[in-house]
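ok trying again, last paste got cut off:
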Amino acid sequence: MVIARHSDGPPLLVRAIWFIFIGWWLTGLVTVLAYLIALTIIGLPLAFMIFNRLPTVLTLRPRTVHTTHEVSGGVTHITETRVPQRAFFLRAVYFVLIGWWFGAIWSALAWLLCITVIGIPVGVMMYNRLPAVMTLRRY
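nice, full thing came through this time. structure:
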């Protein structure tokens, strides 16, 4: 039998402390930096990488890992994989036509919600969905 262990990232208390003292303002800076990098066509892949990691910058949320279980010949195989993504060209065209402005509005609203006490849960949820909104990233 093959057993795979997966860490879910830091404990909730550490993630909350990170968000309160670092995450909320660092995410705003990183978002602006990613937009500046995206202005150049050459920097677009790097900007996509940054946009896709904004939930981690905000709350130290680990990337999603999917686990598959397969039994063959009496042996259980457990495999961790990432979700296959759409073609880079399609994601780039979407970003140029829609993602950059819609993502800017989405991230601005998410950031504003994150700096209010009552809006934090919705703001964090919006930031977690930001890569899909901006670059069609699949989870």
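cool. The first helix runs from residue 12 to 38. The chain has a mean pLDDT of 85.
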